[in-house]
Design brief:
periplasm; 34% helix; Extracellular solute-binding protein; signal
Length: 409
């Protein structure tokens, strides 16, 4: 059963920013997000100006989406074949998209992207409409874990209605040098807190993932997951008791002395791992892919591996396509379905994976070689079932305070 707990993020961003989520200021958010990294990975594809057809389109499809997934050639083909204009607007995080939708976005946008539990929130608040998989033929090509009857994350818990289509997936796991870190050591998160690797570990500067990963280890140690949770729901590493948060703070302070650095961008982490200065680091598998690619291009061979889930669990994400409640049955709904069908077609999905550097929910194994299957974790999609999806902390203020204390220690 997929455990989805949701706002997360696969190349070079070290700019600091303040992020607002539901009115709360994330003071320590580093703009090192999966989204911004994906955008950097897509820079080549988007370098040329996006020129739309000069003819006037009778209809418009408006999308609120992550910029990294915009493929200009496919957009142009969609416009020409459907005689429409596609108008994209971009956002960096789920909270930003949510705020835009709440202030009339369901009337301003036809399509929106989100991940994890955000679609369920949107649907509960009347921002999305029900979708019909039978109207999107390529939905039959999903990997088993993402099929309509299996991937319950995109079903409304109360009504059972389907509310969206899976698109891409990934995780925040451990990339390590198997020549220096025994693979069995990465079967537990204890690896990232072990004095055996003091001065040779690294984590990102993103506070949410650091706290959530530590929470998986802390709650396992405390045995508190099966006890009544603060929100009355099943365990979610983004919903923690004060006792658990206090233990997380202690653990992260202990870990701080073991870290060589908290990296601000992927090129930095790439250099640290390739040089051997770092032997294990938590990341989005982007650097893992870069390391394997570098070896294929002549770099000295090193047995780099990537662990997605540990015995305490792991963090993951699944991006989706959704149709807003402003779209009624008829031509506009048909256009939205046609666009989603194009985007999840195998050939387009393969381009998405290559340009954005992430794994796809569509089964591409029959049109991929062995190297591609390894790079994009195509044979490991079953591991998504045991990951907790990125989410918004239940108390951003408390999480910020914990991170502030860790930084000051």
């Amino acid at each position: 059963m997929i455990q989805v707990a949701t706002d997360h993020y696969c190349l070079n961003t070290s700019n600091m920013t303040t992020k607002t989520t539901k009115g709360n200021s994330y003071m320590f958010e580093t703009k090192l997000t999966r989204r911004s990294i994906l955008v950097a990975g897509a820079a080549t594809a988007l370098a040329a100006p996006f020129v739309r057809p000069s003819w006037a389109a009778p209809d418009t499809v408006r999308a609120l989406m992550w910029e990294a997934y915009l493929l200009p050639d496919q957009i142009t083909a969609f416009e020409e074949s459907n005689k429409v204009k596609f108008v994209p607007s971009f956002f960096d995080g789920n909270s930003e998209a949510y705020n835009k939708l709440r202030v009339g976005g369901s009337k301003e946008f036809d399509l929106v992207q989100a991940d994890g539990f955000w679609p369920q929130l949107y649907f509960r608040e009347g921002l999305l409409r029900e979708v019909d998989y039978s109207k999107v033929p390529n939905s039959s090509g999903y990997l088993p874990e993402f099929g309509a009857e299996v991937f319950k994350v995109l079903s409304d818990p109360q009504s059972g209605k389907k509310i969206g289509f899976p698109f891409c997936w990934g995780a925040y796991g451990i990339t390590y040098d198997a020549g220096k870190v025994q693979p069995e050591r990465t079967e537990t998160l204890e690896c990232m807190f072990s004095s055996d690797y003091s001065g040779m570990l690294s984590t990102s500067a993103r506070f949410e993932e650091n706290i959530a990963l530590a929470a998986l280890l802390v709650t396992e140690r405390l045995g508190s997951r099966d006890k009544p949770r603060p929100d009355g729901k099943p365990f979610n590493p983004y919903v923690l008791s004060d006792e658990e948060l206090a233990e997380v703070e202690k653990l992260l302070i202990q870990q701080k002395s073991l870290l060589l650095t908290r990296y601000q961008d992927n090129p930095t982490l790439f250099q640290l791992l390739q040089s051997g200065a770092v032997v294990a680091a938590t990341e989005f598998a982007q650097v893992f892919r870069q390391l394997l690619t570098a070896e294929a291009q002549g770099a000295a061979p090193v047995d780099f591996r990537h662990a997605l889930k540990m015995k305490e669990g792991g963090l993951g994400w699944v991006d989706t396509w959704l149709v807003t409640s402003g779209v009624q049955d008829g031509k506009k709904f048909d256009l939205c379905n046609s666009f989603i069908d194009l985007m999840i077609s195998p050939t387009v999905m393969k381009k998405i994976g290559e340009v954005a550097g992430c794994s796809t929910t569509v089964d591409l194994r029959s049109i991929s070689n062995e190297t591609e299957r390894k790079l994009f974790l195509m044979d490991r999609s079953n591991e998504i079932a045991d990951l907790f999806m990125f989410d918004q902390p239940s108390s951003p203020e408390k999480w910020e305070r914990v991170w502030s204390n860790v930084q000051a220690a």
